[in-house]
Amino acid sequence: MQSSYGGSTECRYTTLADATRGLSPEQLTSIELTKSPVNKHLYEIAKYLKTATGQRVIEGEGGGIREVLIAAKENDLPDPLFIDTGVQFKVIFRWGSRFTPLEREWLDALGAQLSPIEEDILVSLHRGEKYSRARLHQEYAPYSEANLDRVIAGLTRRKLIIVRHEEFFLEQPTKESAAAAAVDFQSLGKNVPAVAAVVQSAGRATIKELTRRTGLSVGQVRYALTPLLEHSLVAMEGGQGTKVTSYAWEN
Q: 31-51 burial by CB neighbour count: b if 16+ within 10 A, else e?
């Protein structure tokens, strides 16, 4: 546990890399938490098989990791960072809200009492991300389908979202979500969506803030910022290489 007065708190767990052999940090935090199967086709079939008692034959490999990620969401905490050095595997649990002050202010302005799952869906849509029934069931796999369907029904009943062809949309799209939806960030680079979401929701952010919020390295953040700058989606405020330089959302 690392802490400082008035600062952030991090809880770090370290284990041998052998415990996660065959799994990358990206796989651990992805929707599909699986190792690379020897027989991919057989594995995909087995995922739908159940025992006589109704339990899955493959109970979602990495299910414990998925529960940790859900617990972080339920307690308004940022997603933990998974770092594989090749010798050690580290998990860093960070203290603080998973949402920016502006996102929290936007949620409060809705005037509705929301569950953590509902907040997660709404903020994701507010950021311009695509959210569907399939994504909801994958990210919250430990929950029953009936419980998740009630979440969707509650949001539609309160006119916060609408559902079209199994995809969710804000009932009243914000300027930010509409602008983000018009741009295919994924086509600009692997890490561009994560960096764009942080800059867009915060309004502006420094390199240090972007690395902390996204879990990416300084080099990865700078590389992701390049196409955003080239497409005039982000503007640099300050000098190149200066610590106080920030990047502001233009759209």
A: eebbeeeeeeeeeeeebeeee
